[in-house]
C-alpha cells in the first residue's frame, strides 16, 4: 500500500491535471458508469461540524474509493484545516488497499478543479477579473483553478475577517504569482464582485454572501460552500437573471444544497429553470454558454467520483515517479 502525503501529491500532480481528471469524473457520473451512493452525513452539532463518508466504485477503472472527510468550520480559528480528510484507494480487481492519500489536499484539488472545469467549459473567453468570497481551507485551490482556466488580470478576495483576508491574499500572491494576476484583499463583497467575470463563493454561510443584483451580465458564478440544506451562499436574486444553471450532479445538489433547495421551496425558481449537469455539456448532450451576455450559475456539492478518479490518477503518477512511502 502506498502512502501519499500532500508534498508527494504536489510532486506529481498539477491543478491543470486535476481539472482534466475532474472533467472525466463528471462524464462518468452522467453516463452512469460510477456507483456513488449519497454520502453518509453524521452531524457534530456541539462543534458545528459533521463527519462525511463518501464511497465510489467505477467498473471501467477497476477501482473503488472511500473518502472520510470531516467539516469543522471553526478549525480555521485554531490554524487547523476546516476539512481534514483521508482518501482510501482500493483495487477493484482484488479488493486490496492500493493507497491512502492526504484527503484534505485531494479534496482541495478536486473541489478547486470542479470550479476550474466549470469555468473552462462555461465562462466566456475574455475574462479579466475574478472574485473569491471565503478564505478557508478550500479557497487556495479555488483561486488557482480560476487562474488556470482563464488568463485573469486581478482576483479580489473578501472574507468577514479583514486581517485573515489580507494575510490570505498576500500568501496567494506569493504562491500563485507565476499566473501573472494581482490578488488583492477588498473590504466588502460588493467590492469583490464589481465587474467580476468569474465569481466563486466558498463559505459555510447560512445566508447569501453577495448581492445578486450586482452580478454583471456575462459573469460565471461557481457556488461551492453550501453542502447542506440549511446553507445558502448564493443570493437568489441572481437566479431569475441567470440564463443557465448547471450542477456537478443534479441528484446530489437537489438532495443537499440550500442554494437551490431554499429558492425552490420559496418558488423563486422551479426545476424547469435547471439546465443540467456539467458532464452532459462535456459530452455534447446539452448546450453550454451561447453568448457573452449570459449569466451562468454552477452549483457544486462534490461527488465521490471526483475523489475516485483523482486518487486513481495521482496513484498512477506516483507509482511511475517512485513517489510516496510504500507500507509493506
Topology:
Layout: E1 2-4, H1 6-12, H2 15-31, E2 40-44, E3 49-58, E4 63-71, E5 85-91, E6 97-102, H3 103-122, E7 129-133, H4 139-149, E8 154-158, H5 162-175, E9 182-185, H6 189-193, E10 198-201, E11 220-223, E12 244-247, H7 250-256, H8 258-266, E13 276-277, H9 278-282, E14 296-299, H10 304-321, E15 325-326
Parallel strand pairs: 1-6, 7-8, 7-10, 8-9, 10-11, 11-14, 12-13, 12-14
Antiparallel strand pairs: 1-15, 2-3, 3-4, 4-5, 5-6
Helix pairs in contact: 1-10, 2-3, 2-10, 3-4, 3-10
What report would you give on this structure?
It is a single chain. This protein has 328 residues and is an alpha/beta fold. It has two domains: 2-106 and 305-326, 2-Layer Sandwich (ornithine cyclodeaminase, domain 1), CATH 3.30.1780.10; 124-303, NAD(P)-binding Rossmann-like Domain (Rossmann fold, 3-Layer(aba) Sandwich), CATH 3.40.50.720. Helix content is 34%, strand content 23%. It contains ten helices and 15 strands. Strands 9-8-7-10-11-14-12-13 form an eight-stranded parallel β-sheet. A seven-stranded mixed β-sheet has the order 2-3-4-5-6-1-15. The model has no long low-confidence stretch (mean pLDDT 95).
Average predicted local confidence, pLDDT: 95
Structural class: alpha/beta
Name the beta content range: 15-25%
Indicate how many domains the architecture comprises.
Answer: 2
Described by the principal axes of the CA atoms, the overall outline is globular
In DSSP terms (H or I, runs of 4 or more residues), the helix count works out at: 10
Strand numbers in spatial order across the main sheet: 9-8-7-10-11-14-12-13
Query: Unreliable runs, pLDDT <50, ≥5 residues?
Result: none
Q: Sheet with the most strands?
A: 8 strands, parallel
CATH class of the largest domain: Alpha Beta
Listing every helix as H and every strand as E from the N terminus to the C terminus, the arrangement reads EHHEEEEEHEHEHEHEEEHHEHEHE
Question: In total, how many beta strands?
Answer: 15
Amino acid at each position: 500500500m502506498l502512502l501519499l502525503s500532500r508534498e508527494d501529491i504536489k510532486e506529481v500532480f498539477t491543478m491543470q491535471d486535476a481539472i482534466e481528471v475532474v472533467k472525466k469524473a463528471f462524464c462518468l457520473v452522467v453516463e452512469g458508469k460510477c456507483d456513488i451512493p449519497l454520502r453518509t452525513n453524521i452531524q457534530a452539532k456541539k462543534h458545528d461540524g459533521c463527519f462525511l463518508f463518501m464511497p465510489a466504485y467505477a467498473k471501467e477503472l477497476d477501482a473503488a474509493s472511500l473518502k472520510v472527510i470531516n467539516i469543522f468550520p471553526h478549525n480555521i480559528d485554531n490554524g487547523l484545516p476546516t476539512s481534514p480528510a483521508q482518501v482510501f484507494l482500493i483495487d477493484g480487481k482484488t479488493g486490496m488497499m492500493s493507497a491512502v492519500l492526504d484527503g484534505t489536499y485531494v479534496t482541495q484539488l478536486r473541489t478547486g478543479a470542479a470550479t476550474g472545469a466549470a469555468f473552462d467549459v462555461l465562462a466566456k473567453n475574455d475574462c479579466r477579473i475574478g472574485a473569491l468570497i471565503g478564505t478557508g481551507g478550500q479557497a487556495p485551490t479555488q483561486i488557482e483553478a480560476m487562474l488556470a482556466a482563464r488568463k485573469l488580470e486581478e482576483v479580489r478576495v473578501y472574507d468577514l475577517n479583514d486581517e485573515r483576508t489580507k494575510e490570505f491574499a498576500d500568501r496567494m500572491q506569493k504562491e500563485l504569482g507565476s499566473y501573472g494576476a494581482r490578488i488583492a484583499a477588498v473590504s466588502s463583497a460588493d467590492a469583490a464582485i464589481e465587474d467580476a467575470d468569474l465569481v466563486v463563493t466558498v463559505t459555510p454561510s447560512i445566508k447569501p454572501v453577495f448581492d445578486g443584483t450586482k452580478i454583471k451580465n456575462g459573469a460565471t458564478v461557481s457556488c461551492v460552500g453550501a453542502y447542506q440544506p440549511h446553507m445558502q451562499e448564493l443570493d437568489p436574486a441572481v437566479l431569475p437573471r441567470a440564463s443557465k444553471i448547471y450542477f456537478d450532479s443534479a441528484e446530489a445538489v437537489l438532495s443537499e444544497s440550500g442554494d437551490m433547495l431554499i429558492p425552490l421551496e420559496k418558488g423563486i425558481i422551479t426545476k424547469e429553470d435547471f439546465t443540467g449537469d456539467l458532464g452532459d455539456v462535456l459530452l455534447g448532450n446539452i448546450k453550454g454558454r451561447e453568448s457573452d451576455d449570459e449569466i451562468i450559475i454552477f452549483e457544486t456539492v462534490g461527488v465521490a467520483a471526483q475523489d475516485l478518479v483523482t486518487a486513481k490518477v495521482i496513484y498512477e503518477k506516483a507509482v511511475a515517479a517512485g513517489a510516496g512511502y510504500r507500507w509493506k
